């Protein structure tokens, strides 16, 4: 049986994986076996957190809108309900941005739904 020489391929594979562990602590950045496990965990956390990020931002927008709405004496849920009844289609992201950075425009929208 002929001898198989593939050391360069194995080294390239290890080097490629160790590139992903840059910034990890201790043996997780330098030893292949630990690095492989750490990378797999990191990638699964990455995937999950990309989904979680959407939830977190929507929650943040709700908090910002609620804070601005309560300054005008109305709760968040009533504000959203009145916006829907008045057929004003502004999504929560834009509404939160207006509430934070453009309070006069937010107040103008608030007066329209009254």
TrEMBL record:
Q: Does the keyword GTP-binding apply?
A: no
Q: Which CDD domains match?
A: Ribosomal_L20
Q: Name one Pfam family in it.
A: Ribosomal_L20
Q: GO biological process annotations for this chain's record?
A: ribosomal large subunit assembly; translation
**Which key words tag this protein in UniProt?**
Ribonucleoprotein, Ribosomal protein, RNA-binding, rRNA-binding
This protein's GO cellular component annotations are: ribonucleoprotein complex; ribosome
Query: What GO terms are given for molecular function?
Result: rRNA binding; structural constituent of ribosome
Function, as annotated, reads: Binds directly to 23S ribosomal RNA and is necessary for the in vitro assembly process of the 50S ribosomal subunit. It is not involved in the protein synthesizing functions of that subunit.
Similarity remark: Belongs to the bacterial ribosomal protein bL20 family.
Put simply, this protein is called Large ribosomal subunit protein bL20
Q: Can you name the source organism? A: Candidatus Yanofskybacteria bacterium RIFCSPHIGHO2_02_FULL_50_12
Q: What is the lineage of its organism?
A: Bacteria, Candidatus Yanofskyibacteriota
């Amino acid at each position: 049986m002929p001898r198989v020489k593939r050391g360069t391929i194995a080294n390239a594979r290890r080097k490629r994986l160790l590139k992903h562990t840059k910034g990890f602590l201790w043996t997780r950045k330098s030893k292949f076996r630990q690095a492989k496990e750490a990378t797999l965990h990191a990638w699964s956390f990455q995937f999950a957190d990309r989904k979680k990020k959407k939830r977190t931002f929507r929650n943040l927008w709700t908090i910002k809108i609620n804070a601005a709405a309560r300054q005008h004496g109305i709760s968040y849920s009533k504000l959203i309900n009145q916006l829907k009844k008045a057929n004003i289609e502004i999504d929560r992201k834009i509404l939160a941005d207006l509430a934070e950075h453009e309070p006069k425009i937010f107040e103008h929208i608030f007066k329209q739904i009254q």
